[in-house]
Design goal:
alpha/beta; 7-stranded mixed sheet; 6-stranded mixed sheet; about 40% helix; globular; binds nicotinamide-adenine-dinucleotide
Length: about 475
């Protein structure tokens, strides 16, 4: 098996195996072939990882921020040097076209390692004068052992978006990738060791939901950062609350994208393509409810269909291909079942809608028009290449409809009216908003959701607050006055 790692888990700087754990077959989505066979962590493996992370944390936190940052920045350089090799691995793990993985996975992981590596030396508390000579100072402290739990759509990126800020602050991490895409996080762990991270600072263990759950409930764990669906988020948040643990929740969405009739149609169509079909639609922040003002609806749909005709669907290792398979047969069947619901509930299929014959998990990019707000395809997260186009007439109307969802991850607007653009984003109930573009997530900017889409933010300086806490020290320069 071409992509078989040395062992399933990476603990305390070494590969570790325990074949008594439940098997995890890694399937290449383009062909259905098994490319590696791993094992889910047994309770003994979970315990080894927790012990390793706990033991390493004191030493790691005692290093200066400059030293920790240097390790992260070295790791970023190694990732960039190996970008092609890591991208080929990511393409096999996820099925995403190499054209995408070369620019959006290891590179974005490297950005996070570089950015938080750069911040590590500048993390401080503050001095607060109180008058009369007394003062308070605060000490920014690491939380301890942090658990990262990943989804399958951006495995390298998620492993780094969680690991980099955690490590910059002096925490150690146990990362559990999705059981669907377990391979690339092991590479991140290896690279960190090569970059000089002490053993045990970043551990990876494999497993299904039960392994994630056993990490979340362990008293040695101080923080849990999950990327996953809302139902999983609810369970993990509740379990973490029992131990009063810190959490970051990056969950699902059903984000609106509003296109006014004064918008540049070409840009709006590009935004709708990126926000629905990149990574075969398997992106949490996708703008899957595309509200198009009535005046440009037919022009928008015609141009969209023309552009979709030129999508290059095929072997994801061919760099000309820009639309690959879904991650798994299961995810493909979920997306196809939503296409059936769309048809049955009366939406107008204007593009795609079919599975593509062959062993891989391919379907066509799919567009429904005349979608009503209460249709299932407009209400539920599909997490596949299925776009719903809804009509609207007025700004007031579309604002209310855009926000009428339990989700609040992202939202976007296309218009050439400057004041309207800012008015619309001010009204969006969403954590990550776009004006005249969609789905960009640079490490410098906070990323995360409102409402049921999540708690906390990843990336940017804000992530530091989610991986550290302040100790307050009151210093008296005066005698202590007691009442008796
Ligand atoms: P999922 O919720 O099924 O699984 C996510 C992870 O949680 C997996 O590693 C899984 O093993 C683990 N898990 C499952 N049950 C658990 C439990 N009880 N305790 C602890 N861990 C448990 O999600 P998925 O299918 O892997 O990913 C798709 C979902 O992720 C979509 O809803 C998508 O929107 C969301 N997502 C969100 C973001 C974001 O940044 N907001 C990014 C990518 C994906």
């Amino acid at each position: 098996m071409q992509f078989q790692p040395k062992a399933s888990h990476f603990i305390n700087g070494e590969y570790v195996e325990d074949t008594s754990g439940a098997p995890i077959d890694v399937i290449y989505p383009a062909t259905g072939e098994v490319i590696a066979r791993l094992h889910s962590a047994t309770p003994d493996i979970v315990n080894q990882a927790l012990t390793s992370a706990k033991n390493a944390q004191t030493e790691w936190a005692a290093m200066s921020g400059t030293e920790r940052g240097r390790v992260l920045r070295r790791a970023a350089d190694i990732m960039r040097d190996r970008n092609r090799e890591l991208s080929i691995l990511e393409t096999h793990d996820t099925g995403k076209p190499l054209q995408e993985t070369l620019v959006a996975d290891a590179t974005s992981g490297a950005d996070a390692l570089e950015y938080f590596g750069g911040l590590a030396a500048s993390l401080t508390g503050e001095h607060i004068p109180l008058g009369g000579g007394d003062f308070v100072y605060t000490i920014r402290e690491a939380l301890g052992v942090c658990v990262g739990i990943g989804a399958w759509n951006y495995p390298t990126q998620i492993a780094c978006w969680k690991g980099a800020p955690a490590l910059a602050c002096g925490n150690t991490m146990i990362f559990k990738p999705s059981e669907t895409t377990p391979l690339s996080a092991l590479q991140v762990a290896e690279i960190l060791i090569e970059a000089g991270a002490p053993k045990g600072v970043y551990n990876v263990i494999q497993g299904y939901g039960d392994v994630g759950a056993s990490l979340v409930t362990d008293p040695r764990v101080a923080k849990v950062s999950l990327t996953g669906s809302v139902p999983t988020g609810r369970k993990v948040y509740a379990a973490a609350a029992d131990g009063m643990k810190h959490v970051t929740m990056e969950l699902g969405g059903k984000s609106p994208m509003i296109v006014f009739d004064d918008a540049d149609i070409e840009n709006a169509v590009s935004g709708a393509i990126l926000g629905n079909f990149y990574s075969s639609g398997q992106v949490c922040s996708n703008g899957t409810r595309v509200f198009v003002q009535k005046g440009i609806k037919e022009a928008f749909l015609n141009r969209l269909s023309e552009r979709l005709e030129s999508a290059v669907i095929g072997d994801p290792l061919d760099e000309e291909v820009n639309f690959g398979p879904m991650v798994s047969e299961n995810q493909l069947n979920i997306a196809l079942s939503y296409v059936e619901k769309g048809r049955a509930e009366g939406a107008r299929l204007v593009f795609g809608g079919e599975r593509i014959a062959g062993d891989g998990f391919y379907m066509q990019p799919t567009v429904f028009a005349d979608v009503a707000d209460d249709m299932t395809i407009a209400c539920e997260e599909i997490f596949g290449p299925v776009m719903s186009v809804l009509d609207f007439e007025t700004e007031e109307e579309v604002m209310a409809r855009a926000n009428d969802t339990e989700f609040g991850l992202a939202a976007g607007v296309f218009t050439n009216d400057l004041t309207r653009a800012h008015r619309i984003v001010a009204g969006f109930e969403a954590g990550t908003c776009y004006i005249n573009t969609y789905n960009l997530a640079p490490v410098e900017a906070p990323f995360g959701g409102s409402k049921m889409s999540g708690v906390g933010r990843e990336n940017s300086k804000l992530a530091i607050n989610h991986f550290s806490e302040m100790k307050t020290v009151y210093v008296s320069m005066n005698d202590v006055e007691a009442p008796y």
